[in-house]
Amino acid sequence: MHPERLREDGPTSGIRGAVDKPTGGVLLTVLVAALGYFVDIYDLILFMVVRVKSLRGIGVPANQLLDRGVLLLDMQMIGMLVGGVLWGVLGDRRGRLSVLLGSIFLYSTANIANGFVQTVEQYAALRLIAGIGLAGELGAGVTLVSEIMSREGRGWGTTAIAGVGLFGAIAAALVGGLTRWQTSYFIGGGLGFALLALRAAVSESKMFLGLREAKVSSGNFFMLFATKERLRRYLAVVFVGAPIWYCLSVLVMLSPELSRAMGLAQAPDPARAVLIFYSGACAGDLASGGLSQVLRSRKKVLGIFIALTAVAMGTYFVAAAASLFALYACIAFLGLATGYWAVFVTVAAEHFGTNLRATSTTTAPNFVRGSVVPMTMLFQALRPHFGDVASAAAVGAGAVAISIVALAQLEETFGRDLDYLEH
After folding, report:
1. Bigger pLDDT: 201 or 268?
2. How far apart are CA 70 and CA 82, in angstroms?
3. CB neighbourhood size of 264 (10 A)
4. Cα 349–chain centre separation
5. Model pLDDT, residue 422
6. Helix (H, G, I), strand (E, B) or coil at 91
7. Which CATH superfamily is domain 14-409 in?
8. Which residues contact 377 (CB under 8 A, 6 or more apart)?
9. What is the signed CA dihedral for 326, 400, 162, 301, rounded to 10 degrees?
10. For residues 48-70, average pLDDT
């Protein structure tokens, strides 16, 4: 362990009492964080589901649907990158609870407003705002839950957050496919505001409250890059998650184009592909989170699921072209294999001190999501030379290789005492 990570290097005060919080209070906090992530993922995936339907609804011509859709997705991703830094800094300066509730309020408001858009410009502005709001909920929720639960039990809490949250994607696929696109946005916003009613019953982390008595910089994003060791630690956390969003953004979202290039006669339905992928991911997250508790190791489980992801990717390129059923089966396998998001965000929380924990745990998932941009750019650059399938396979191989190297740089954090500061 590095010197800056020792407890005597500036522990916060009153932290040991955090693990003694009544069980009812802990469960309620986990529930609020999990439901918040449910609505978060609902909104994130809903746009992908209703993209074409909503653009047609506001009068976008058929030949502009792809370009306008990419613009809106890019605006959302830019918002998430900006929001990741913003909410992370605020989480370490103003508190985990304030960010958890503030992010829910912002993306719920944007969700409702999305149902009233009349132009692409309005839509783009609201996707930017929604992206900023969506960036904060997961990191704040995981940080809060990690700090109020016992060191050996917190993995169950973060698994519950990710497991319940991913059901939001399933809900988005179902609601988006069965209702008018405006109604599906209104439902998401309404769910968020209903969740805010639980606000009064949730308490702030005592670890964060102890920071007010410690003379140390909090929420300084640039501290993540202040030393080579801390930068290495942070980049390793981010790169471990890269294969998850490669599989979603390339193999699932582009499955109609890839399946056609592989010779499949019938194209998959994008909404159904997302539904199947996230159904697998829900099972995977519950399995990976539980396995990390049983094996008492985050690192071993990350290794197992990264290896499983590599196998699932290979299966996709070899077997998906056999039939539409085979393609959907491969997508379900991809979802299961990449279902280590719960362990990933737990590791992000456990690798940094209390004064940087919200910053790291909030920015890391959003930088993983942002990795979609360079991966899709590389895919586009390779296509003219190698074709769709080979290009997608090359990008995927690179993502897995980077994640393996990153995993080797991480420490085992199961059972780590989080009562320490970064200097």
Report:
1. 268
2. 18
3. 19
4. 13
5. 84
6. helix
7. MFS general substrate transporter like domains (1.20.1250.20)
8. none
9. 100
10. 83
SS3 content of the chain, % helix, strand, coil (to 5): 80, 0, 20
Q: What is the pTM of this model?
A: 0.84
CA dihedral in degrees (292, 295, 290, 407; nearest 10)?
A: 20
Q: What is the DSSP string of 322-383?
A: G-HHHHHHHHHHHHHHT--HHHHHHHHHHTS-TTTHHHHHHHHHHHHHHTHHHHHHHHHHHH
Q: Is the pLDDT of residue 241 over 90?
A: yes
Spell out the residues 6+ positions from residue 200 whose beta carbon is closer than 8 angstroms to its own.
Answer: none
Residue boundaries of the structural domains of the chain: 14-409
Q: Which residue has the higher pLDDT, 201 or 301?
A: 301
* Distance (Å, whole) CA 423 – CA 413: 19
Total Cβ atoms within 10 A of residue 133: 25
Dihedral angle, C-alpha 313, 315, 321, 322, nearest 10 °: -160
Q: Is pLDDT of 8 > 70? A: no
pLDDT at 208: 76
Q: Cβ distance 239 to 405 under 8 Å?
A: yes
CB-count exposure of residue 256 (10 Å: 0-12, 13-18, 19+): middle
